[in-house]
Amino acid sequence: MKNKFLIAVVALITFSSCSDKLAPVRKDALKPTIVTQKLPHDTDDPAIWINPTDASKSIVVGTDKDTDGGLYAFDLQGKIITKSEVLQRPNNVDIAYGLLLNGKKVDVAVVTERERNMLRIFSLPDLQPLDNGGIPVFDGEAARDPMGIALYTRASDKAIFAVVGRKNGPSGSYLWQYELVDNGQGIVTGKVVRKFGNYSGKKEIEAIAVDNELGYVYYCDEQFGVRKYYADPAKNDNTELALFGQKDFKSDHEGIAIYKKQDGKGYLLISNQQANTFNVYAREGENGNPNEHIRLAEIPTSTIECDGADATAVNLGGSFQNGLFVAMSNGMTFQYYNWDTIQKIIDSQKK
């Protein structure tokens, strides 16, 4: 009994010490429109799938990051509607439309399965596996541990690529890019087509996002800055186009969401994790320079220690007629925000 009491006391002290390090939600923080049902373990990263026939029936998929975790799908009311097979520590997820399999176009969610060093591919919206157990990533490397992922669809031929990050790796080739293709039997396979990406060595690279329409990939070099590159491997150009946000964050640079307007304008929203806010930058750049990104606003949200986020400007109906912003929060949930509330703060802070 005495040992159990001591263990309980130590656990309480440890928990309290960890909690003391977390910044509280600000008094002026936006309140979410919807908070999803809780997952069993630890939410990490969401992605929005737009239903092509009825946008009001779109879903949010999100990872439950644990050894016996999985990928979950939520409706726009935050209710769990389906889940994948069990995955071993699924970390991040992204979505692409129209991957050609057996002559048919299939929308897919692609997840990093960290403990197996795999990419996992699932059909949408039913979350059925399409990969015969997974695609190995970072083969031959001492450092594997896949974490971040973003999907790029090339406009010219609709080829789909996965940009994958990991827990650690060398500067200059930290990220690997894979083309996702049908093996001829309706199974998705991956081929390495590019290795790129500078790395400061400060912490890790997890958050990755791709702007398909403008052709850029962004990623967070945690505690250092946000880096920007061309997304298309056919350019054969690994020049770093921008490094920004170096003085705008309390500590970690985390989840990246892109709110895309049809005119090529919009916003990059990047989690200022330890401050429980999101820093906002112009998608199109500043002063006529597409690679100049200056912070426009800081959005206080009700999320705690947010790792991942996504956004859409599509009219989803109901509370989300001008779009949806979704972000992970400690507490095993995802939070949905009506875009209008975010836009109001951006407009009030812009110069």
Automatic annotation (TrEMBL):
SUPFAM superfamilies: Thermostable phytase (3-phytase). One of its GO terms (molecular function) is inositol hexakisphosphate 3-phosphatase activity. It comes from the Bacteria. It holds the Pfam family Phytase. Residues 15-346 form the BPP domain. InterPro entries: 6-blade_b-propeller_TolB-like, B-propeller_Phytase. This is Phytase.
